[in-house]
């Protein structure tokens, strides 16, 4: 197994800051905007985005955590999956939802998340923000609105995101080849 470093500090912080600037351009005052991080690792990225936007704009944008495990199309085909907590303490009815995940690969998790979000209302608009876009791996026609970094990968490669919040010594993103 080989590991290649894709992104780490300080470039990772610059990437998050750039994504936040793009969000500010499109959402301006964030009046009707909310952030929803996808479990399990998208929540760490979503929290970073919320904190960066707070430091730039002074606005504390509502943040939720969404688990789409039971909405996955392969739910019964895989080994038993452990669900994570869903915490969306607000309605998304008529809101602009910024759906955040660390890695976009096949698009199946995003499809499941869109289904799971319907329990919290019908949003006005949904935008997808990802840290890593694994291009050439899509099974569904899903395209992110905001991308930190695009990475060319093949089926035998995996992108691993390590966050300090998970107990790692530093934030790092690796390309792992089996």
Automatic annotation (TrEMBL):
<protein>
    <submittedName>
        <fullName>Bifunctional pyr operon transcriptional regulator/uracil phosphoribosyltransferase PyrR</fullName>
        <ecNumber>2.4.2.9</ecNumber>
    </submittedName>
</protein>
<dbReference type="Pfam" id="PF00156">
    <property type="entry name" value="Pribosyltran"/>
</dbReference>
<dbReference type="InterPro" id="IPR000836">
    <property type="entry name" value="PRTase_dom"/>
</dbReference>
<feature type="domain" description="Phosphoribosyltransferase">
    <location>
        <begin position="6"/>
        <end position="164"/>
    </location>
</feature>
<keyword id="KW-0328">Glycosyltransferase</keyword>
<keyword id="KW-0808">Transferase</keyword>
<dbReference type="GO" id="GO:0004845">
    <property type="term" value="F:uracil phosphoribosyltransferase activity"/>
</dbReference>
<dbReference type="InterPro" id="IPR050137">
    <property type="entry name" value="PyrR_bifunctional"/>
</dbReference>
<dbReference type="InterPro" id="IPR029057">
    <property type="entry name" value="PRTase-like"/>
</dbReference>
